[in-house]
Write a structure and sequence with these properties.
By secondary structure, this protein is α+β, with helices and mostly antiparallel strands. 53% of the residues lie in helices and 8% in strands. The longest helix has 33 residues.
Length: 402
């Protein structure tokens, strides 16, 4: 029993490492809304500088806010003494998290989407399963505490992320209805369980040669003989262009070739396929179905659920990115606190600088591709080459990845 429990905890600790990237979202704070399991907002989270609620605070709340935060040997410690460094250190991230959640609520309201505490708890359960897939549900609370402690995140911050995800899921669900069809399920099944296909390939250097091969194959020429006669792939030419069976997970093979190989029927020949530095014409010899599983109705339904959840997560990610960008727009909010206003402007300036640098890097990369002679030649490259040797010396352009 002890060994089994220890094994579960070991798997749970491994899960903590696997979700470190997700914790980059935990840069927020709690806010008024559904109960957050007893967690409280950081001091100052309800201050006028951070909250969007402009309703006048009750007299008791206002009076409590003006009360000292502590008494030390009879001397009061002003609340501002705690609030000011909190705002300087964490204020902008907390503010942006509040704004992002508010924007998600507004989007839900526009779509007439209602949210309930049950929706939030359901999202919490989904996140726990995603974080700790191999752990027992009874271990979730302690594993979550370890995760939050490791990432330096409070329970209140995590509760905001849960609520944000709950809103995003409710917005995303209508957008994903009917998007997963039987063809999507079949492709995912092939990837998961290892369906393969055997093909023959004729690799040539230009479109004219590829069209010539396609024309001869359509006229009834033996495809293996065409490969021996025209292919410049020295690895498969003498084999009549035959490749080992490939799967959708095979590496070092162009996605365009894999897409054609799995979409064609046995005996069909493809149109010319352009890859980096070469053209291919392929013929499908045989589709080999997975040997360890069968795509029955139960498997289809199970895979449909998996694919639906994956699509939901991708849609939620896109919505989150959109909201994050909207929250950084100056016209979305007016920041009254001078410290937060300065931090916000610094954040905007930093993002603009990063965008300029990325644009310049893309421009330079494009120029290098369009004008390869601008690149520095290797120090060991000969100044000239004997006539007629260039084609022999240059390695096939598609050797690393066909």
């Amino acid at each position: 029993m002890f060994s089994a429990k220890r094994s579960r905890w070991k798997r749970g600790r491994a899960a903590i490492c696997s979700v470190a990237a997700a914790c980059a979202l935990f840069a927020g704070c709690t806010e008024n809304g559904f109960p957050a399991n007893g967690s409280r907002a950081p001091s100052g989270a309800n201050s006028p500088a951070l909250a969007r609620d402009t309703r006048p605070a009750p007299a008791t709340q206002s009076a409590g806010f003006n009360q000292p935060i502590a008494i030390v040997n009879g001397q009061p410690v002003p609340r501002e003494q705690l609030v000011k460094p909190l705002i300087e250190s964490y204020g902008l991230n907390l503010l942006l998290q509040i704004i992002q959640l508010e924007l998600a609520k507004q989007e839900a309201a526009k779509a007439h989407i209602a949210m309930s505490p049950g929706d939030v708890e359901g999202e919490r359960g989904t996140m726990m399963k995603g974080f700790f897939a191999e752990a027992e549900p009874a271990d979730y609370p302690q594993l979550l505490e370890q995760l939050l402690k490791q990432q330096g995140v409070t329970r209140a911050q995590f509760d905001v992320v849960v609520k944000m995800n709950a809103y995003l899921r409710k917005i995303a669900e209508p957008l994903c209805v009917g998007k997963i069809g039987d063809e999507n399920i079949k492709q995912a099944f092939d990837v998961m369980y290892g369906a393969t296909v055997k093909i023959r390939d004729v690799q040539v250097t230009n479109m004219a040669e590829a069209l010539n091969v396609k024309r001869r194959a359509a006229a009834g020429a033996d495809f293996g003989q065409l490969a021996k006669q025209f292919s410049n792939d020295v690895r498969t030419r003498d084999l009549g262009g035959q490749w080992p069976a490939i799967s959708r997970n095979s590496t070092g093979i162009s996605e365009a070739i894999k897409e054609q190989a799995f979409s064609l029927k046995d005996g069909e020949v493809s149109d010319p396929i352009s890859t980096e530095g070469a053209f291919h014409v392929i013929k499908v010899d045989e589709h080999i179905a997975p040997r360890i599983a069968k795509l029955d109705d139960a498997t289809k339904e199970s895979m449909r659920k998996v694919l639906n959840e994956k699509l939901l997560q991708e849609t939620m990610k896109a919505l989150r990115a959109q909201i994050n960008q909207e929250a950084l727009q100056p016209n979305v909010m007016e920041i009254k606190d001078p410290v937060l206003a300065r931090q916000f402007q610094d954040r905007l300036n930093e993002q603009k600088a990063q965008s300029r640098d990325a644009a310049e890097a893309r421009r330079q990369e494009l120029l290098n591709r369009l004008n390869p002679t601008t690149r520095t030649a290797p120090a060991t490259a000969p100044a000239t080459a004997p006539a007629g040797t260039e084609a022999r010396q240059r390695p096939p352009a598609t050797m690393p990845a066909r």
